[in-house]
Amino acid sequence: MIRYHRFATPLGIVFATAVADSITGLYFEGGRHAPAIDPCWVEDGRSEALAACEAQLREYLEGKRTRFELATLPRGTPFQQRVWARIARIPYGQVITYAELASRAGAPGSARAAGAATGRNPLSIIVPCHRVVGSQGALTGYAGGLDRKSHLLTLESRSLVLAA
After folding, report:
1. Burial class (CB in 10 A: 0-12, 13-18, 19+), 20
2. Would you kindly state where each structural domain of the chain is located, as residue ranges?
3. Among this protein's residues, is 129 annotated catalytic?
4. CATH ID of 2-61, from 3.30.450, 3.40.50, 3.30.160, 1.10.10
5. Digits of tens for pLDDT over the chain (164 positions)?
6. How is domain 78-163 classified at the CATH fold level?
7. Tell me, what DSSP letter sits at residue 127?
């Protein structure tokens, strides 16, 4: 059974999905590739997994958290899974290019494929795909919109300055 919880953030309405104790998705409502809330899903804001997701996301957006400690279960192809696993390893406040991401995922020369997999990341922010940029550092491609990507990168760079 898929459970979900919608909540407001400074970046707009998001919704998280979970199966059992694992987060399966975190989406910006209306974002590219965000699924429609299925009538078969159960709204459950009191679920431990979904409540923890909301709390940790709020801490992150307040600059109080640099990594998420949530059980996750994203669904995707083996290539997508490899790309998402590599994205999850990008340190807070740092960025890499799509070309570098493709190489790290074992597919050098496949920046476009890595970009497509990044765009399908079901765990927005938790798996920090906003940390992946174009070849010259350009802010390209973010399912939540480039304004949000810019906001997240600015938040992380500001937090690093404050922590130094």
Report:
1. exposed
2. 2-61, 78-163
3. yes
4. 3.30.160
5. 999 999 999 999 999 999 999 999 999 999 989 999 999 999 998 999 999 999 999 999 999 999 999 999 999 999 999 999 999 999 999 999 999 999 999 999 999 999 999 999 999 999 999 999 998 888 888 888 899 999 999 999 986 554 44
6. Arc Repressor Mutant, subunit A (1.10.10)
7. B
Tokens encoding 107: 């597919």
Determine which one of 52, 129, 152, 155 is catalytic. 129
Q: Can you spell out the DSSP letters for 61-126? A: HTT--SS----B-----HHHHHHHHHHTTSPTT--EEHHHHHHHTT-TT-HHHHHHHHHT-SBBTT
pTM for the complete prediction? 0.92
